[in-house]
Amino acid sequence: MPTPLIPATPSRLLAEQALSRAAGAPLLNGNAVDLLIDAAAHYEAWLAAICGARQRVLLENYIIRDDEVGRAFRDALVERAQAGVFVAVVVDWLGCLGQSRGAFWAPLRAAGGEVRVFNPLQLGQPLGWISRDHRKLLVVDGVLGFLSGVCISAKWLGDPARGVPPWRDTGVALRGPAVAELEAAFAQSWGETGVALRQLPAAAEPATPAGDVALRLIATQPSTAGMYRLDQMIAAMARKTLWLTDAYFVGLAPYVQALVAAARDGVDVRLLVPGSSDIPVVAGMSRSGYRPLLKAGIRMFEWNGSMLHAKTAVADGQWARVGSSNLNIASWLGNRELDVAVEDAGFARQLAAQYERDLDNATEIVLASRRHRHGGGSRERVCRSEVPPPRVRHAGGSSGRAAAGALRIANSVGAVLTNRRVLGDTGSGSLVIGTVVLAVLAVVAFVWPAWIGWPFGAIAAWFALNLGIRSWRARKRRWRELRDADDD
């Protein structure tokens, strides 16, 4: 059995109950978990599993791109469907926008496979497109499952010919009772896109347990906040270490306060984030929140590669999380996400060792002391190296946006020797950008008012159309109910 997060039996039972309620997921024993690092290992394992399928393949991913990697997966699915294997695929409409079109899936549909698109833009729901299916899930024959942060796109492999390193990402392969939960999570998403998933035959009971790992599978849905509650609770329960990796960190105030409180209690809290992001505006928002974390003693690191896309956590060498959820409001409250929380010392040690290897390719962010010119006092500030850092090219974003943003690497001899640098005052940079944008909008509004009026008019018309459609649908449904009541 795995070593408990809290060793005393009464506390252990209380912790298990609290974690189960927070996550909305029970603790499942008897699983085997294998760690997968970066896209090449994922794609090899995923394709091997698909090609070996005998009954069914269930695939759900935020992005499946029409490139050499996406076509390799589609062709493998086509071959299995032609062999009589039930193949069902769910992709996200926004994630695949500009990445792959309906024609991309025509061969699979012709072979008997089924493909559905989650939450396409539709009239009557003006803001409905905001909620996305951000899960990355694969289940084969009900006995082997995968979940990850990796999408199906050649971008994750980098581009050696152009000097673009592979993206850094993390996932797991699962066997045991957790696989049935993965299938249930897929069935949820499938049911959200149309008719419910067909009844699948239960996998044969194994003669012996697949492994001895206890875990929780957290399949979050919009507004449920199960992963948010669990992240908050782990921050509160950690006693020695809490090491986090996140691709798009924009922490809510309560979560930041939980991390700060843990650090001030003596917990070794570390946060590893991208140095060069595929979505620069998110990176800027993340950097603007470094100061309170650093002042509380939290150690911040920026990845030196092309893109860090992993979402992981490891606490006290006993508890670990891997999946698709980022530490931001979109993942916590808006999207469909999928994560596994593992309560096993062996797996936690693996993930912690990988974390330390990742720090070898990262740069630590520190606070610097600034002396006042008058009065002789000093105070801490977040400051940037005066020498412009080199830029690393990478192969685009998880939502198809072009690469942008500089990789912040030390350039001074001291930074080379210590692998530490100081960060510039990012808050003032955000204020300058906001000032410029608002000033430009003000000038445009005064000089060319139509350039402001027409877009606002179009937005108002869009919302009016959608609200009108929803009102008509509601009235139609009400009339139908009244008519049915009169018939009774």
Automatic annotation (TrEMBL):
Residues 304-331 form the PLD phosphodiesterase domain. It comes from the Bacteria. PROSITE patterns: PLD. Keywords: Membrane, Transmembrane, Transmembrane helix. InterPro entries: PLD-like_dom, PLipase_D/transphosphatidylase. Residues 376-399 are annotated as: Disordered. GO terms for molecular function: phosphatidyltransferase activity. The keyword Transmembrane helix applies. Signal peptide: none annotated. It holds the Pfam family PLDc_2. One of its GO terms (biological process) is cardiolipin biosynthetic process. The chain crosses the membrane at residues 429-448, 454-472. This is Phosphatidylserine/phosphatidylglycerophosphate/ cardiolipin synthase. It comes from Rhodanobacter denitrificans.
